[in-house]
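Design request, tokens follow.
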């Protein structure tokens, strides 16, 4: 199972403390040292709306460039794409919100206009030789209008296909989803996009994120998003809380016999470290205990993966 680290973007974008660029780069470097190979490093969005991402170019200029590591930049329009390409991202991710009301509050446009922006961005990325992925946000529920039908998410996925997405992600932006919804949404998208890899993005607002991750795994989703420390949330969604934690998800998968290739003690230490930088205990649980079987006393960082 591929775990996509989203802490540097989705994790930090909702935190009240604005971390210096060097701390963000240190956070990214620690995740790489723990084995992460695909990471949403930053967002190329308007700094007045998301000030936590105002230093996107500086972050990308300073991140370690290692073989096999892919840095994703989130973009919402052509201006964001131009910035991301100039900054040297390896991949872009575009968000289309499943409800019009949330889309207007999040991006200032309705769903139809957001899909138009997706096609424009996807075309520009393809011309530059950069893959573009699509995330359908609030796919499990909208904080303003309530339930989001599976057929609406399916229709958005179908409308996005001419843009040639590298991947389609379903995101539980406000943490209301349950495993039955996961299975229903995966099945609905598979009906219209059978050959496109799927990714899932879960928040743990109502303590269902890890159950949803297991349901996604069992449904054949190829990748799962998570943030080290479990930090994050959406600044435009009331009471949205953190992502599922990379270290807690890794422990769960490792104990299930699902290979992740990640260093569990190193992830847990990073989660504790980023919480300290943010002035609060990180939501992740693994950093408050130990792996099982326990890690060696010398802290060698041996994974529990069989």
């Amino acid at each position: 199972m591929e775990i996509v680290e989203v802490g540097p973007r989705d994790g930090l974008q909702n935190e009240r403390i604005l971390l210096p660029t060097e701390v963000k780069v240190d956070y990214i470097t620690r995740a790489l040292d723990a084995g992460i190979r695909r990471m949403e490093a930053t967002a190329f969005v308007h700094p007045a709306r998301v000030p936590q991402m105002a230093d996107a170019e500086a972050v990308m200029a300073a991140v370690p460039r290692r073989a096999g590591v892919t840095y994703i930049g989130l973009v919402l329009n052509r201006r964001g794409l131009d910035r991301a390409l100039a900054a040297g991202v390896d991949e872009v991710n575009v968000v289309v919100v499943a409800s019009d009301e949330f889309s207007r509050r999040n991006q200032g446009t309705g769903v139809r206009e957001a899909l138009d922006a997706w096609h424009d961005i996807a075309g520009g990325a393809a011309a530059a030789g950069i893959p573009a992925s699509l995330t359908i946000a609030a796919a499990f529920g909208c904080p303003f209008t309530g339930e989001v039908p599976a057929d609406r998410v399916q229709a958005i996925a179908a409308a996005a296909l001419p843009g040639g997405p590298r991947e389609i992600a379903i995101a539980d932006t406000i943490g209301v989803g349950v495993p039955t919804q996961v299975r229903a949404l995966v099945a609905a998208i598979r009906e219209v996009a059978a050959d496109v890899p799927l990714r899932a993005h879960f928040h743990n607002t109502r303590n269902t994120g890890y159950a949803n991750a297991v349901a996604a795994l069992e449904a054949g989703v190829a990748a799962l998003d998570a943030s080290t420390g479990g930090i994050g949330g959406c600044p435009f969604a009331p009471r949205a809380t953190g992502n599922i934690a990379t270290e807690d998800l890794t422990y769960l998968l490792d104990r299930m016999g699902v290979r992740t290739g990640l260093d569990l003690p190193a992830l847990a230490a990073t989660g504790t470290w980023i919480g300290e930088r943010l002035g609060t205990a990180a939501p992740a649980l693994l950093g408050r205990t130990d792996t099982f079987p326990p890690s060696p006393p010398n802290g060698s960082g041996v994974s529990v993966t069989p």
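Comment from the thread starter after seeing the answer: thanks! The longest strand covers residues 38-44.
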